[in-house]
Amino acid sequence: MNEFEIIARDSESRARAGLLQTAHGDIETPVFMPVGTLGTVKSLTPEELLEAGARIILGNTYHLYLRPGCEVIGQFSGLHRFMNWKRAILTDSGGFQVFSLAKLSKTSEDGVTFQSHIDGSAHLLTPEKSVEIQLCLGSDIIMCLDQCIPYPAERGAVREALALTTRWAGRCKEFRDRHTRGKDLLFGIVQGGMFNDLRSESVAELAEIGFHGYAVGGLSVGEPKDVMLEIAAATLPQLPGEKPKYIMGVGTPADLVNLVDLGADMFDCVMPTRNARNGQLFTGCGAINISNACFKQDIEPVESGCRCYTCRNYSKAYLRHLFLAKELLAYRLNTIHNVHFYLDLMKRMRAAICAGEFETFKKNFFSDQI
Ligand SMILES: [Zn+2]
């Protein structure tokens, strides 16, 4: 069965529109997945996510495994019922957080040992364990455990991490195939740092194993923007064309437009939610900081014409007041707008691709940016 179907292709770029079937509904691509690290997209209810157009969100294996743990979430047969989200969930492997958050992480052939950032308890995360946790979470899209490597890194270290990532991917596949309930999808993660030939090596090795989809990991880790785009431009066309292509952890609205142009189908990033809590709001003309004095008496919404609950009901002056007063509602209203903005941007890109107007869309998008 092919769970991913390409509906339309842009004739002048690699942009494409597709449909990905999951156990919890179809997902129109290109798609942005709001990040729900701890089993919640911070400050939003599932109803608000649905209203913003979200059909898939991200859950975080590392965090949910440590707290509340699989014995709690297992009682609910997984994360969907635990958090009352009926649509699709993609879970990351936990690898990124082990390398970035946990104390004393140590990598071996077997897996990664680490100490919890919460209570210091010791754990071993193996490729099998990561998939087992994600199966327990009831994830619709399971990510393979990969070895993330900091930027910049020496070629030798990148190559070793890539080779280990491939061996771990093979173990994830084996474990998933033995324990799957049949509906979950497994994605491999391409590594290779900022070396194009190593990225190619990683793609070839993963394609050989065979996955439902392919992610490009290790981007947006501190490298210059043009390097990120160059690596994505070189890597994306090499991935199996009939499978979904996911760029992990990126990025700004402009990044999303550029990466869709290069053939990417799926994205996640904390930017719309985290920046909302810091008072940064996205608009078609670029981002604004709501605390700015110029909004003190601004009676207009964040973006006129925006259909989100925040813009339909509140002015910039009110949002600025809430934010400066550190009122809880500020975080909610800001997040509602930003998530809506990101999802709407994806929707508009998809419509443009389907209508054969992606080039025009792109041109307009960039000329509107201040
Ligand atoms: Zn809005």
Number of strands: 17
What is the average per-residue confidence, as pLDDT, rounded to a whole number?
97
Strand content: 15-25%
Distance from first to last alpha carbon: 46 Å
What can be said about the biggest beta sheet? 9 strands, parallel
Question: Helical amount among residues, as a percent range?
Answer: 40-55%
Q: What is the 3D form? A: globular
Q: Which distinct ligands sit in these coordinates?
A: zinc ion
> What radius of gyration results from the CA coordinates?
20 Å
Neighbour order of strands in the largest sheet: 4-15-14-13-12-11-7-6-5
Helix vs. strand class: alpha/beta
List the uncertain runs: none
Work out the helix count: 15
Task: Report on this structure.
- The structure is a single chain.
- The chain contains 15 helices and 17 strands.
- It is an alpha/beta fold and 370 residues long.
- Helix 7 (155-179) packs parallel to helix 8, helix 11 packs antiparallel against helix 14 (328-354) and helix 13 (316-324) packs across helix 14 (328-354).
- The N and C termini lie far apart (46 Å).
- The model has no long low-confidence stretch (mean pLDDT 97).
